[in-house]
Write a structure and sequence with these properties.
Blueprint lengths: L2 E10 L3 H12 L4 E4 L6 H5 L2 H18 L15 H15 L5 H6 L3 E3 L4 E4 L2 E4 L2 E10 L4 E2 L27 E5 L3 H12 L3 E6 L9 H13 L3 E4 L2 E8 L2 E8 L2 E7 L1 E4 L3 E2 L33 E3 L10 H16 L13 E3 L4 E5 L3 H7 L4 E6 L4 H5 L6 E6 L5 E8 L2 H13 L4 H5 L10 H8 L3 H4 L2 H11 L3
Parallel strand pairs: 1-2, 1-6, 2-3, 6-16, 8-9, 8-14, 9-10
Antiparallel strand pairs: 4-5, 5-6, 7-15, 11-12, 12-13, 17-18, 18-21, 19-20, 20-21
Helix pairs in contact: 1-8, 3-4, 3-6
Length: 475
């Protein structure tokens, strides 16, 4: 028999956004049901952020031995035991998994149903032999790899970010299709772990990012031995012995690249197949995306969407921010709105590339007046001490000194960008950061230095010099 229960909030999907909504609402006193048909923790924990960063950590450790000579050291790394690397990745996932486990959420008071859910009405859902009647619903179903309709692709065993971490053996030659963040990160990780890597990108590497910053990453990838092919389109895929044959077309015509494995990293897509949205009166647009208002409400005002399901930036930290918006709207009737203006993003290559706010190109396209402040890593003492001087910080500033956007490319860029994200969110001017007292020697000095450069033309100009000479007469 089907069990029927009434709850305040029903959450579909136990990824970053769904878990944040469920935990927050339950701990604040709401009754919550959570449907998850797969693994708790969603993509981020199991096949995304966590395993990719764990693999990158192993890769950077191996690379450290390769470049130890710059510190006056001689070091070698034994040929990579791929199974041990894979176990390291799985160990990291296992260490974090209890935080996202069924047991923990049941401890919060959440009813977890390990099943697919579908709507049967505006506020009713069914799954796993349970019918749920909810005051509010949050759709947090995430996204899946977007696979292009490439001729022959369905006839080969290709990899995505959901399967690449399960390889038993190290790829001898990995072909990577897609030069976005995922493609660049995984290409570099495999190259530093001893794989031959060819990366194919139809347009420009890290296309949405600041071109100067992307140049720094491109140089690093090529130093790692990656064959970076830009402006090259994939035409077809086929078998080549025990491997893969990828035919591409670029400025020099058609060419066939052969490798042992093919990783498809051409973005992610959102799908609501099987949810029966029409039964709940939930509208989608011509591309199949949910039609949402600024409060993340669907056309059914009792149903919200968070994270990738909301159709915006596909980041775990955005999903977390969305959770706060949904909780405010549902539990407290507070008309909170989602705002992506100050959301930072990071590509976790070495060096990292981080961005918050608009880029130069975006500001110019909008006709916005701005100035550019820069500071190179090479003029940071900590970077020099660690022989890691590639990169820079670039800050875009309005004529009144307000910070509009920032790009950082270099070691720990993902950590430094948070300060600029705060500055943009709080509408701070450069003076607030120029006055910071930061510990020495740290890369955080770059924040202070680049902000202080706003004042250099005035502080060291002729008028200041004349004023000082005049005041010194009376000293």
């Amino acid at each position: 028999m089907t069990e029927a229960i009434d709850v305040d909030l029903c959450v579909i999907g136990a990824g970053a956004g769904g878990l944040s909504v469920a935990a927050g609402a339950s701990q604040m006193g709401a009754s919550v049901v959570l449907f998850e048909r797969g693994a708790m923790g969603g993509d981020c924990l199991n096949v995304g952020c966590v395993p990719s960063k764990a693999l990158l950590a192993a890769a950077h450790a191996a690379h450290g031995a390769d470049v130890a000579g710059r510190f006056g050291l001689d070091m070698t790394v034994a040929p990579t035991d791929w199974r041990r690397v894979r176990e390291h990745v799985r160990g990291v996932i296992a260490a974090i998994a209890p935080v996202d486990s069924v047991e923990r959420y049941e401890g919060f008071g959440v009813r977890v149903i390990p099943a697919h859910a579908r709507f049967t009405g505006p506020r009713t859902l069914e799954g796993g032999g349970v019918t749920v009647r909810a005051r509010f619903v949050a759709i947090a179903t995430g996204s899946t790899p977007s696979v292009p309709p490439l001729p022959g692709l369905d006839g080969v065993a290709y990899l995505t970010n959901e399967t690449v971490f399960d390889l038993d053996e190290r790829p001898s030659h990995l072909l990577v299709l897609g030069g976005g963040a995922i493609g660049c990160e995984l290409a570099q990780a495999h190259a530093r772990l001893g794989c031959r890597v060819t990366l194919v990108e139809a347009a420009r590497l890290l296309g949405p990012e600041d071109p100067e910053a992307a140049d720094v990453v491109r140089l690093s990838l090529r130093r790692d031995g990656i064959d970076v092919r830009e402006g090259v389109s994939a035409v077809s895929v086929g078998r080549s012995g025990d491997g893969i044959a990828l035919t591409v077309n670029g400025a020099d015509g058609a060419e066939t690249l052969t490798g042992s494995h093919l990783l498809v990293a051409t973005g992610r897509r959102v799908s609501f197949e099987g949810l029966d949205l029409d039964r709940a009166g939930i509208a989608t647009d011509e591309r199949g995306r949910l039609v949402l208002d600024a409060r993340l409400r669907t056309s059914n005002r009792r149903v919200f969407a968070v994270g990738d399901a909301a159709g915006g930036p596909q980041f775990t930290h955005v999903a977390g921010a969305h959770a706060g918006v949904v909780i405010k709207n549902t539990l407290f009737r507070w008309p909170a709105r989602a705002d992506n203006a100050g959301v930072p993003r990071v590509t976790f290559t070495a060096p990292e590339l981080a961005q918050v706010g608009p880029t130069e190109a975006e500001l110019r396209s909008a006709g916005t007046a701005f100035g550019v402040l820069r500071w190179p890593y090479a003029e940071n003492d900590r970077a020099q001490a660690e022989r890691s001087v590639d990169g820079f910080a670039k800050v875009l500033v309005a004529p009144n000194g307000r910070i509009l956007g920032a790009t950082v490319v270099g070691d720990a860029a993902g950590e430094l960008i948070s300060v600029w994200a705060l500055a943009i969110a709080q509408r701070l001017k450069v003076g607030a950061l120029a006055g910071l007292v930061v510990p020495y020697p740290t890369r955080a000095e770059i924040i202070k230095r680049v902000a202080s450069s706003w004042y250099v033309p005035k502080l060291f100009g002729d008028r200041t010099r004349a004023l000082v000479r005049f005041l010194m007469r009376f000293a």
